[in-house]
Amino acid sequence: MTITKPVGGESATLRDCLARWPSGVAVVTTVDQDGARRGFTATAFSSLSARPPLVLVCLDRSADCHPAFDGAEAMAVHLLRDDQAQLATRFATKAADKYEDLSSTPGLSRVPLLDDVLARLECELVNRFDGGDHVILVGLVRRSEVFPGEPLVYCGRLFRSLPPEESSV
Questions:
Q1: Do the domain assignments include residue 53?
Q2: 81 within 8 A of 151, measured Cβ to Cβ
Q3: For the domain that residue 47 is a member of, what is the CATH number?
């Protein structure tokens, strides 16, 4: 039996519907005007254009780090490995010192670059768009790196790993 309800507002049905869509998990970092490192966990991340190389990420306007990204010149998007759910949770937690005991190196515009991730994109922030209770950050990719590992996936309100790839013979 299928139950349908009108979509809108903060309905539980809408949240349940959207929770069924799997997505990768990223940590997005920047520095604020005082040079303090800021960041958040995002599942709303996407490639936007190949020419020029643009990506987008959505940031909740109520996030502690929203003001930092509102005035930032650059951001780094870190795609997480399947063993990094704890890192995703750390950057999703409000009012936490997200960088405590975490090594990072300065990248483009001194944005913190996290080590040991699946992939990393350093971006110049070129645009921001209204997205309701979120802001859509558009970054021009200036540098990208890929590292070994498998992606962390978020689906059904849980972190998951993809099954091992089956070999085709």
A1: yes
A2: yes
A3: 2.30.110.10
What is the C-alpha to C-alpha distance for residues 131 and 138, in angstroms, rounded to an integer? 12
Q: Model confidence over 95-142: pLDDT tens digits?
A: 778 999 999 999 999 999 999 999 999 999 999 999 999 999 999 999
Distance CA 97, CA 38 (A): 9
Residue 2 inside a domain? The answer is: no
Pairing of strands 54-60, 134-146: antiparallel
Q: Confirm if 125 and 111 have CB atoms less than 8 A apart.
A: no
Check: pTM over 0.85? Answer yes or no.
Answer: yes
Query: What is the C-alpha to C-alpha distance for residues 140 and 8, in angstroms, rounded to an integer?
Result: 33
Distance CA 27, CA 145 (A): 15
Q: Could you give the count of Cα atoms lying within 13 Å of 60 in the half-sphere of its Cβ?
A: 11
Distance (Å, rounded) from C-alpha 129 to C-alpha 57?
A: 11
Q: Pinpoint the alpha helices (H) of 71-167.
A: 85-92
For residue 93, the enclosing domain spans 23-150
Residue 76, both tokens: 């780094």
